[in-house]
UniProtKB/TrEMBL annotation, chain A:
The lineage of its organism: Bacteria, Bacillati, Actinomycetota, Actinomycetes, Micrococcales. It comes from Cellulomonas algicola. SUPFAM superfamilies: Periplasmic binding protein-like II (SSF53850). Keywords: Cell membrane, Lipoprotein, Membrane, Palmitate, Signal. Pfam families: SBP_bac_1. It comes from the Bacteria. This is Sugar ABC transporter substrate-binding protein. Residues 1-22 form the signal peptide.
TrEMBL record, chain B:
GO terms for cellular component: plasma membrane. Gene3D superfamilies: MetI-like. Coiled coil: none annotated. Belongs to the binding-protein-dependent transport system permease family. The lineage of its organism: Bacteria, Bacillati, Actinomycetota, Actinomycetes, Micrococcales. The chain crosses the membrane at residues 26-52, 96-119, 131-153, 173-200, 232-253, 285-307. This is ABC transporter permease. Its main location: membrane. It comes from Cellulomonas algicola. Residues 93-306 form the ABC transmembrane type-1 domain.
Length: 441, 321
């Protein structure tokens, strides 16, 4: 124990030394961190990887000389969380502000990395967000661990020109989706309506969320894990069937191969989320103006359910000594008309803040200029996002997804997709119990 | 003659000598101090800390939300029993064993072959060849894996384009049966040059009289290689084998970089990938430390056994002569 604290102190000293050198190269007089609040100039650091954040922060810094924010660009969700948790364990080195993906919030809260800002947020902040979105930053309790920034309601993206060429109709149910997938692949065996990606656990989570699944739950003082449940099995079996038949591709998304397939028209559709236009623009630039967006295919004809894939909140870390100022900045960035306009215009994000959406989202994204009602349709689909609870070991479940569904997709056997669900459930429960959580069966 | 002078001078002035020897006694430590400090700070302490962590674990109370919900406690050997009983760990050891059996003999065989070819009298442009064989070693493993990843994916690979034009149906190299070859190939590409240089350097130090004698006895170039060169560079081969074995046990960058490109490489493909997953994906630094200690001990054991084996055998007798 003594050795442990000793090394913690040593690590903290080393980290502070590094930080000090890093900071000193920045500005001359950042040293005098006068007591919290009154009068003194406050410097806040902000770890984020969302696009356009530097530009939005520049507008804030211009108007608020007393609260200066410095953006520190991160590589992405997973590496940033690793870095933050290391800083939390070392006792120093964490930023004041941190971009948290919704599914990471329970993990970060259980590691004591996020501050409760319920007391310092302006009144009425909660009312600006959809109930399901707000729940993901409160985890259903009284504490508030961040303010939602953007959300990722899922839709179906497809190549309108290819659909016309083969006389395909846009599927409104999953049954039709399977038929269209088969029609297309039979007409041209090099073309697929989509792919089952064993690398994107968040994507699969969204699909099961649409079907009514919630992988975790809170039962009083215990967690429950419901990965092996009827909705998840239904989704897994459905996709297993399509992959086994060969009408859907089994390769992961976000590979050079997948990009090429999107760009040359071999991948004709993509079940994705509201941020898809930006990805398509970057990965398949040759297809501009050829895509259209439609609501997700439904399990029951006439439903309007969907899931979320992606989306983040902005949080204050437990190491910040300027929680009030940090909360003030977050409220401006994510829950004010000015801030939200910047999120949309500079970052191309789909804001979670509902009152500002109408003004901020007046014109469709550039890549979808052929679909004038893009954001009107998107707003309708967003209403159908089903409730979902993330647990404290999302990372474990997600990496089990990669391994188990990787095997199933490679083998192209529908029965193995169901086995993968069983294995994920076992791995996730085992990990929770091993950590000492109480798990209800 | 001059060598006799200093001792006599020292003998005549006793006190000076004693003071000198005392200074000489402290000097080695002064010279060693920087190395010892660095060794302690950056090797011994972290290793000690990892061993300490491997006997600890974190226990969560209730829902585990809010501050103070986690507590670090002693775990005894629990982390070790979990690591050794984990079927994924054993499977990753199995995969790496296959990888090593494929890679090490091929790599050292090619390295030896290239070194002998470069050393043979008829070879032209040795400087250029040596550099071009060595060059891949200078490419970081992650970059090499990204490049090879592109070449392995049928849709973007120029090789598969050619195969397609020729009408050949070549199986995907990153499919489940072949993926170990795909990974070993990257290691081979990067490793041959390094090992070749070590063997080649050993070849260059062989006195030329040996070759002249062999030629007078009528030995061909091939006979010289088999009977003189290979036996003499055997210590270098032992060394390169040891290095390659350790590198095999620690294979990480290649499968880690290729993983997102296919379904066939799991997050626990190699033992070190499992350590990485436990530490950084699962946030369980304690289990990761235990597995690291197991891997380190296994590496020591293998290296020691291997060296004992070759020392008992004939190989090292060359050196001791």
């Amino acid at each position: 124990m003594r050795l442990h604290t000793g090394i913690r102190v040593a690590a903290a000293v080393a980290a502070t030394a590094l930080l000090a050198t890093a900071c000193s190269s920045g500005s001359g007089d950042s040293g005098d961190d006068t007591a919290d609040g009154s009068g003194g100039k406050v410097e806040l650091t902000f770890w984020t990887w969302a696009p356009g954040m530097e530009e939005a922060v520049a507008v804030w810094n211009e108007a608020n000389p007393d609260i200066q924010v410095t953006v520190n660009k991160q590589d992405g969700g997973d590496p940033a969380v690793t870095k933050l948790l290391t800083a939390i364990q070392a006792g120093s080195g964490a930023p004041d502000l941190f971009q948290t993906e919704y599914q990471k919030i329970p993990t970060l809260v259980s590691e004591d990395a996020l501050a409760d800002i319920a007391d310092v947020l302006p009144d009425g902040t909660a009312e600006r967000f959809a109930e399901g979105t707000w729940q993901s930053v409160t985890l259903g309790g009284d504490a508030v661990y961040g303010v939602p920034q953007d959300s990722g309601p899922m839709q179906f993206y497809y190549r309108e020109d290819v659909f016309q060429q083969y006389g395909l109709s846009v599927p409104t149910t999953w049954e039709q989706y399977a038929q269209v997938a088969e029609q297309l692949h039979t007409a041209d065996p090099s073309k697929y309506l989509g792919t089952f990606s064993a690398n994107d656990a968040g994507w699969f989570t969204g699909l099961t969320q649409q079907a009514g699944a919630s992988w975790w739950g809170i039962d009083g003082d215990a967690w429950s894990v419901d990965i092996e449940s009827a909705p998840v099995q239904k989704v897994a079996e459905y996709w297993g069937g399509l992959v086994e038949k060969g009408v859907i591709d089994n390769k992961p998304m976000y590979t050079p191969e997948w990009n090429a397939a999107l760009n040359d028209g071999s991948q004709v559709g993509w079940l994705s989320a509201i941020w898809a236009p930006g990805v398509l623009q970057g990965n398949a630039p040759d297809t501009a103006g050829k895509w259209k967006m439609a609501p997700m295919p439904q399990w029951e004809e006439g439903d309007d359910a969907t899931g979320n894939w992606g989306g983040s909140a902005t949080s204050v870390t437990s190491q910040s000594t300027h929680k009030a100022e940090a909360a003030k900045f977050i409220a401006w960035l994510n829950a004010s008309q000015e801030g939200v306009n910047l999120l949309v215009s500079e970052g191309g994000l789909y804001p979670a803040d509902i009152p500002s959406q109408a003004e901020a989202l007046s014109s469709p994204p550039e890549f979808f200029s052929n679909q004038a009602d893009f954001y009107t349709l998107a707003a309708e689909t967003a209403k159908g996002v089903q409730p979902f609870t993330y647990g404290p070991n999302v990372n474990v479940a997600y990496s089990a997804y990669n391994d188990e569904f990787g095997k199933a997709a490679e083998a192209k056997q529908a029965s193995l997709f169901l086995d993968a669900v069983t294995a994920m459930q076992a791995t996730t429960v085992d990990d929770l119990e091993n950590q000492g959580f109480t798990v209800t069966k | 003659m001059t060598t006799l002078a200093p001792p006599r001078a020292a003998a005549t002035s006793g006190p000076t000598r004693r003071r000198g020897s005392r200074r000489r006694g402290a000097a080695p430590y002064a010279f060693l101090a920087p190395a010892l400090t660095l060794f302690t700070l950056f090797l011994a302490l972290p290793i000690g800390y990892a061993v300490y962590l491997s006997f600890r674990t974190e226990i969560v109370q209730g829902l585990g939300l809010g501050s103070g919900a986690r507590q670090e406690v002693w775990a005894g050997f629990a982390n070790y029993t979990r690591a050794l009983q984990d079927p994924e760990f054993l499977a990753s050891v199995g995969r790496v064993a296959v990888y090593g059996l494929l890679l090490v003999p091929t790599m050292l065989g090619l390295a030896l072959l290239f070194a002998l070819l470069l050393d043979s009298r008829r070879t032209r442009a040795t400087g250029f060849s040596r550099i071009s064989i060595f060059l891949p070693y200078a490419v970081p493993a992650v970059i090499a894996s990204l490049l090879w990843g592109f070449l392995y994916l049928p849709r973007v690979s120029p090789f598969y384009y050619v195969f397609d034009q020729l009408g050949w149906d070549v199986p995907e190299v990153m499919s489940s049966g072949l993926v170990v070859f795909a990974i070993a190939n990257i290691g081979l590409w990067g490793g041959v040059g390094f090992n070749m240089i070590i063997i080649y350097t050993a070849l260059k130090s062989i006195p030329t009289e040996l070759y002249e004698a062999a030629r007078l006895d009528g030995a061909s170039e091939l006979m010289v290689a088999l009977r003189i060169k290979i036996p003499i560079v055997m210590p270098s081969l032992v060394l390169t084998f040891l290095f390659s074995m350790i590198a095999t046990l620690q294979v990480f960058a290649e499968p880690m970089t290729l993983r997102p490109l296919s379904n066939t490489i799991s997050t626990t493909w190699s033992p070190l990938m499992k350590v990485y997953r436990d530490a950084f994906t699962r946030g369980d630094i304690y289990a990761a430390s235990a597995t690291s200690v197991v891997i380190a001990l296994a590496t020591f054991a293998f290296s020691y056994l291997f060296l004992r084996l070759v020392q008992d055998g004939r190989a090292f007798s060359q050196e001791s002569k």
